[in-house]
Amino acid sequence: MRATLGVLVGVLLFSCGWPGPAAAEEPKTEQASPQKILFLGDSITRAGGYVRMIEAELAKQGSWQVINHGRSSETVSGLSEAYHPGRRPCLLSRIDEELKQTKPDWVVACYGINDGIYHPFNEQRFAAYQAGMEALIKKVHAAGSRLILLTPPPFAHSGPFPEGSDVAAREAIVAKANAEAETSAEKDPNKFGYRTPYPYYDYVLARYARWLLMLGSRQGVWVIDLREPMLLKLKETHGGDPIHPNTAGHAIMAATILKQWPTIQAQAKGIRATDATQRKRRLVFLTNNFSLPALTIALLYKCRWQVELFFKWIKQHLRIKAFYGTSDNAVKTQVWIAISVYLLVAIVKKELRIERSLYEILQVLSLTLFEKTPLFQALQTQMQPHSQPTLHNAA
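-> structure tokens emitted (395 positions)
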């Protein structure tokens, strides 16, 4: 069945009359050499808990090389607290060399918890985080890699809030506290930092996470929300340290990423083709059929209307209204019988020089199937045969 459809599709594509794409690249599937996943992040990634859990699971699924190059204290914003021992390292100072040396297929990046430098929210620090993320996206894509961004885990302490306060009341409290804290920070640069964090710092991370999730609509960028699953079990994910998740926290991070990994892989596997007549246009086709060559997939997309007409013809002429069986053999048998009947009728039409359409002939035969009427008499309206045949419907 599959071979037959392959021949029919080949004939269909040949008849399209379109020169087709100039080139097409195969979708990435499991290769002989392992695909590389480069993990980048701050001390949470450097600790390696969730990375090792992911590596162990991927080892069961295929050939993957997991590289953990997280770095303690790192940011993408380039910001640092006044009292931090030495300026915080910035990923953008090393990302080019990392991509050059590792040549990853995938980059997984988790940044944010250090980027607000444990201060109240302000637009300048937020803009620095956004600019750093945008630069990361551009550099990863320029290297030909795919990018998965992780929202920063929550800061496991937020408050204080009056008991029984609702969402609106809490937002009002945070807004007032943020304005007062920002004023204090301007007067005293050492007011806030990783040792003395802003009490409502988790609300800063929530703003960062919401913006990050909006980037998931971009081509070649996927965003996984670690924040919400961890908030549901916040008492379990952190010990006495509100910044660094414990083993249970890392397990939730790994499980959240692995849950979305199959979907991300499926979305990422696409055909890239260049139009033969407009070579500046790069087209990407998504497919779940990796047995056909990339060029064939690209041609199928180009000739998709002809494909629609082809299957419409099958439905109209092969007279298969329903399948009597659902097994592979039953479906094949019924399709082959329908094709054989159609070809036999086509032969009769040619031999008897019948002017009626095949559809009309099939209609007539369906009504006179058990009648002892000569075929040419039943079918012919204006027939000029070589000789008078004596064929009958039944003996």
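The CA atoms of residues 76 and 92 lie 6 Å apart.
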